[in-house]
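pasting for ref. prot 1 ->
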Amino acid sequence: MNGDSGDRQISRYFERPGVQPLDDAAFDGFVDRLGHLSLNLRSGVFKHETGLRRIAKIVLGGRSRHSLLRARLTPFLETLIWKDPLAALAARAAVERHGIPVVVTYRPPEAVVASYKRLSWRFPVHQMAEDLSGAGLKGGALPVRDAKNIVEESAALWSMIYAELLSLAQARPDLVTVLHMDAVLRQPRQSYQSLFARLGLEHGARAERGLASLEERLAQKSKSDLPSGHPHSQDRNLNVVNSYWRALLSEEEVARIRARTEDVRMGYDRYFESGGAAAISMATAEKLAEPA
C-alpha cells in the first residue's frame, strides 16, 4: 500500500479504508486481488534514483514486484505474508472485514523517529490526523506545530499509528498479535516459535533456514553501529536497531519525542505487562527459553 511504488489503486501513504479515495468496496477489491496475486504494481522508481538503478527498476521493477513474482512462482503456496508498514491504518479493516490475522511489530518511538530522520522520510501527518479524527494525539494537539521539524512530525506519526494498532489489538486479541522487537533481537528463536504457534504456521525447513540466518546476523558485528542511508542495508548491525537513536538524536529531540508519545508508550507497557497470549514480549521469549 505504498503510494509511490505499490499497487496503482493506492494513491496515498497510510490509506485508511472507508475514507476517500479508498472506500470499503475499493479496499475489498484490493484484498481480493492481493489474495489472487494479481496486483498491478508500479515500477518502484523514486525521484532520487538515477542512472542504471533507475533504468533497471523501469525494466525489472522494484522489491515489491520481485516479491510478487516469487510468490507467483512458489508451488503449492498456502500462506501469504503481507509485510507492509504502510498498511498500518488498514489493519482494522483487514481484521474486521476479511478476518486476516495481523502482527504488529512494536518498536520504541525513539527508534522509529531516528529511522525517519536518518532516511529523511516525510509523511502526510495532517491528512492522517484528519482520517483518524485526531486519535493518538495527546491532548488533541495538532499533529505538527513546526512543519519543518521531521522529529516532531515522526513522533506524531508514531503516536497515531501505534494508538490505532493498540486499540485494535485490545479489541481483537483473537486475530491481532503484538510482537516486541526487543524480544526478536534478544530471543529470536523463542519469539518466532511463539509467533508461529499463534498464527498456526508450520515451522518447516524454509522457516528454519530463515531463522538460522537471522541468528547468524545477530551474532555478527557490522562495521558501524549507525546504519547507512539505505532503508534495506544488508550490512546493518541488527543488534542496535532499537538503540542507535542515542547517536542520532539530541537531548532536546528525545525530550520532544517522549512528550509527544508518552501516553501511547505507557499503553503498550501495560499491554505487555498484562502477559496476554496475544503479546509476545521479552518475558514471553525468556519463559520459552527456560529448560523444561
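and prot 2 ->
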Amino acid sequence: MQAVSASLLNNVRQINGLTFLAQYEACSNREAMMIQPHVYFIPLNNPLSLIEFQQGLALGWLTDHEINKIHRYKAEQAQHNALQVRLALRAVLSLHSYVLPQQWQFEYGDKGKPSLAIEQFTQTGLHFNLSHSGDWLMIGVLPCANLSSLNVVDNAVLFGLDIERLRTNTNIKPILNHYFSANEVADLIALPEALQRQRFFDLWTLKEAYIKATGEGLAQSLSSFSFSFNNNHVFQADCFSDMAPSPRLCRHDEIHFSAPVSDNGHWICRFGRLTDTYRFSICIGMNGLVKDNNEKSRDDAAKQVNISEPIMRLTSLAQLVAV
C-alpha cells in the first residue's frame, strides 16, 4: 500500500482506465432528475503484511474511534479486513466529491445503518451502503445532489445493497419458514434440490439489501415481504465456473417485489452474480419524496426521478489509494 498525498483526489480520477469526474459536475443536469448508483467490488482475499497494515493506519484517514474498533478485533485477519473496509469506503466516497478521505464524517441510525453526517450529506447529496462477505467487499454510492430542486424530505431516498457467499454447510431447511414468505418457500421447494441452495442465498441477498435500505435491519420481519423470479428461474446458476469475477445483473423485469403492507414506497430491486459463489443485490426506494402533503405533488415528483442502470466496477484497495 503506497503512501498517499493530497493529490490523490484531483477533480479527475482514474480507476481501471476509466475517468471519473467529481460528483458536482456529474449532477449538473438537473432537468433529467436522473440518479445512478455506482457499485464497486473490491477483493479482500489478499492478507496484508504488517508493514501494509501499518501504512494503512499511517494514511491518517481514520478517526481514533475507528482505529480503536479495528484493534478490538482479536483475529488478525478481522483487523486487516476492518481496516481495508474503512479505507476503501472513504476512498470511494471521495471519487464522487471534493471531500478528502480523511474528512468524511459518519452517523448511524437506530439500527446501526451508516450514513454521512448531515452537513456533509447536505453538501454532497451522497447516499452510500456497503456489504462484505468472504473475500469480497461491495460499496455502493448513490449521488442525489440533483434532487435538491424537488425539495425532497429527509430519508426520501433509501439505498441498500448486499453481497453473499454461498455456503455449503448452512442447513437451510429449518430457516425457510422462519425468514421466508409462504410464496418464497413454495417456489424454492419446487426447484430441483441442486438449485434450492442457490435460491436460498439469492433470496437472502435480496432481503438483506431491502432491510439495509430501510435501516430497520432484522427488526423488520423477513417474512413480511417477498421476492419472486419470472418462471421461478435461477439466474446464472452455473455459467461462472471457469470465468474471472464479473458483475452481471439479471434483467430488471426478472424479479418481482412484494413490499410489507406498511411500506408505500416505490422500489427498484436488482439482483446479480459476481461469480458462481457470490451473488449481490441492490435496492433503491423512494419514500414520500417531497415536502408536500398533496398526494398528486408527491406522485408528480416521483415521476420526475429516473433510476438508471448501475455502473459496476471491479477495483482494488491499492488502486483506490494510489496517487
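The chain is about 30% helix and 25% strand.
Residues 20 and 81 are 26 Å apart (CA to CA).
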